[in-house]
Structures are given as C-alpha cells and as structure tokens.
Prior knowledge:
The protein has helices at 15-21, 26-29, 36-46, 59-71, 85-93, 114-123, 144-155, 210-217, 227-237, 240-262, 284-293, 308-313, 325-339, and strands at 2-3, 53-56, 76-81, 97-102, 104-106, 109-111, 128-132, 160-164, 186-191, 204-208, 267-269, 276-281, 296-297, 299-300, 317-321. The protein is an alpha/beta fold.
Amino acid sequence: MMPLDRNESYWLLDDELVEAARACGAREFSTYPDYGELKSALAAYAGVGKDQVLVAPGSDAAIEHIARAYAGGGGEALLPVPTFYGYESILDRVGAKTIAIPYEERDGRFAFPLAKTVKALESGSAKVLFLCHPNNPLGCPLSAQDISELAAAARGSKTLVVSDEAYFEFSSGATFLPRLAELPNLIITRTLSKAFGLSGARVGYAIAAPDIIKKVEKLMLPWPVAHASVLSALALLARTDKVKARREIVIKERGNFIKKLQSLPGVAAYPSETNFVLMRASGAERVRDALLTQGIRVALGEPMSRFPEAKTLLKDTLRIAVPSPADSVAVLDILRRLFTK
C-alpha cells in the first residue's frame, strides 16, 4: 500500500538516517525517559531557551492541552478554515465555542482571511486563535504581511495566538518565532513527524514564554513520549544537515509532481509549501477510489471540515502526500489514464 493520505514523509529518511534513529537498547526499554537533553536539543535547533520548550507526544497532543487550558469549558476559539481537521474535534472535545473564519480562493490560489481575523482578534472576546501555517489541507503559508498584521493585532489583545508550524521546514521560512519576545500571548507548535520523517515516533514540541509552557505542561501525564522516540529524535537532531539535504529532495520532487499534475486535462494543482499537494478535479471521490484499487491511498478534501464554507472550498479536491520519484510514476500513470479517456 502506498501511504499518501496522511502527509507522512514516508521516504524522507535514507538508510543511514533510519539506522541512526534506531539507537535504542535494553536500558532504554526498561527505564523511564528524561526530557532534559531533548529539550536542550530542540531549544538549540529553534534558537530559544530550554525553559521555552514543551515536549509532547506529537504536536496534536500539545494542541489539545493548549485548547483545554485556554478555551475549555465554553471559551471562544477563532479558527480560519479549512484547517487541520484535528482542531475541530479537539475544540469540540474540550467544550470550546468555535468561530470559523473561511479562506477564499482567488486566481487559483487560497487567500488567508486577514481582515476578518484581525477584526476578530481586536474584538477581544476570543480566548485563543489557531493558525495552521502553512495550512493543512490547502498547502499555503501566511505571508510576511499576514504575520506582521496579525502580530500587531495580537499585541493589543489578550487572545492566545497559536501558530501551528508542523510543515515549517518545507516552506519558504516565514515564521512567528521572531515575534516571540514581543508577544507574551504567542505559542508555536512544531513536530518531528513531517520534516524529520518521524511520524511513528510521535515527537512534537511547543515554543512559548516559560509561564505558558508551565501552564500547559501541568496538564500532561508523566513521561508522555517513549524513551525510544526520545533517542530517535536526538539522533536526527544531531544530523540536521543530513536531514535537511534529504528534505530538499522532497521539496524538489514536490515541484516536479505539481508540474506533472498541472499537465493533466481537467486537473488544478495548487502551490504548496508542505510535504503534500492539494489538487482539484471533477469526480474526486471516483479518483480516490480508482487509486485505492491500485493500492494507493489519498485523502478527500471535502470531509476534512464540518463548516459549510470550508466544505465548499474543498469540493472535488484530493490531498496527496508528495510521493517518492518511483511512486510518482505509478500515481501519475493512473491519473493520466483517468483524465485522458
């Protein structure tokens, strides 16, 4: 089965990196982990202080604890949609009131609802704003102007701003991180699942002011990340140059994949700064099913949100993780046959 439905970087790690990530012995299996070294390594990688880092079993776990701490029990949460589908279920689970702010499509690109989001921030009623940057499932990042205007609005607001940067390393590099010192109400979530190819290890982290980190950390269970996962993360964080080189191959292949999708009749493939591509084609469900019969899993876009505006924007779309060069040949061959009949 070719796994292209969950945004996994399934071919990012080469044999050398896979072997390095397996550094786990009997002592690690039989003892509880310590997170001090991992926090230090993540802090060094991000360029922040160790007390500004929270370790979590995937960034989605950090997101749930943030939602519970700041919007649980009826708090208002701002959510530009469509976005990572986990937000909707997490916010429902903690009893938050979700205010959806829809993206728009203009000239073949998706536009972040900047004016409406800034206005909602300035109203002061929301407890938290969740930003998916770059966006999943749309693949588009916030612009430098978006970040600047959101930061300006956040400075005069008590709303916690969460920038979910799970795909940051696949992007052109725009991040909220330089705003951390000026925004005490900012928290950035990241993960090793995507750009480090460690989805199965479940290692995520958050970066924020120490008081926010302490507040969220209190909600977590002891030892949430397994010892073997800690060692895998440390091994790859010690080899960031090698991991980056492999990631650049994925980015190059993403560009090739988009160009080839765009050459197919009736297919629109959107620009992406992630490890996946969103494409639009009539009869997306039929396309999904045809790929599945050939052992290729892709994800339908429309079911990723319950909000009508988001569902409309995602109608007839498929989200496809960037396949390896060899797998890309098989995927494109099937799509070519489907769209040239």
